Amino acid sequence: MNKWTRDQMAARIARDIPEGAYVNLGIGLPTLVANHLAGGKEVFLHSENGMLGMGPAPAAGQEDPDLVNAGKQPVTLLTGGAYFHHADSFAMIRGGHVDICVLGAFQVSVAGDLANWHTGEPDTIPAVGGAMDLAVGARRVFVMMEHLTKKGDPKIVDRCTYPLTGVRCVSRIYTDLAVLDVTPGGLAVVELVDGLSLAELKACTALEAPQ
Amino acid sequence: MISKVVESPAAAVAGIRNGATVMIGGFGTAGMPATLIDALIAQGAAGLTVVCNNAGNGDTGLAALLKAGRVRKMICSFPRQADSYVFDALYRAGRIELEVVPQGTLVERIRAAGAGIGAFFTPTGYGTMLADGKESRVIAGKPHVLEYPIHADVALIRARASDRWGNLVYRKTARNFGPVMATAAACTIVEVSEVVGLGELDPESIVTPGIFVHRVVAV
Fold first, then answer.
1. pTM score > 0.95 for this model?
2. B17-100+151-218 is classed in which CATH architecture?
């Protein structure tokens, strides 16, 4: 089956981010989106530990332990960037000032419920970070994930079986097979990878709200 | 003449009691007051409740306090990290209590304590297991969860510079929880890289006014 690469997924998401947007990229896969935002388009990257105007990783040897991103990796600040404390940072998120956030996910339901923080297995230590705030607070929540689990199970489901991060919070889903919008009537296909038919997508995706 | 500057980290942490609730600034190691934590380990207070975004990295700082067995309970948003093995072992052995709080709710609960707010409704966490058992209410068509403030006996934070009145400026993303925790503790203790003369900090740029600060030590 033809699939988009991770870089193609990231480039596809970057195309949907307009100039001037305030954007938070979640830890993991979504950080790839930053690599595709260059090229004259001014986009403000927000990092929830307290920075707007986040730039790329520094050159080797230029790392500053006081300048890190939400994943605690060294980053840089672009000219015009700003630092602020955590309460202000989450006011930006929860207060609806962040236009778009891109999050990874374990599962998304057809109603837009998101599960991305905890597998719920008894021996895992729960750790939520800012995921729940981003899920309810950002004006648009984009999910970026593989369409299927490593075992081949659908990640877009009628109802999430993993513990929820947020209820009805996802706007759009980008996978390696499709781009899907969450609508009141279910998921609407925006784009399919070349060679994939709608019937093939339906075979591995919950598209309509369960009755 | 008022000076909040004390001569040593030991003097800075003097008097912290067993069973105290201690806020510790920092996001990972950025902004973590490592010298004050070492002084707290030497001071000996135990049975602590620690409020910090993370639950320690590697073997130093908060991880060392945990390893020394001084912490009864952690309140944090993101305990599990690649190098949080000290906390992980204590948790799996049932030797430490954990309260996981969404990051924005954690800092807002701290802010509420410092600002004299009795409780607040937030949309964060609604419909998730972290809201289990909590009161909820639909406000303007959106469901919210009731959350209560977190007060502390002591806050340990790190800043770049202070004057003798305790006015603070920070450095880059090491600011994170510092300005908020400073407001929420009965005693806020700050380690700084530099103590400067009164008037040397631009009043327009002071991030934490000295009213929130009780003790300062240069490290």
1. yes
2. 3-Layer(aba) Sandwich (3.40)
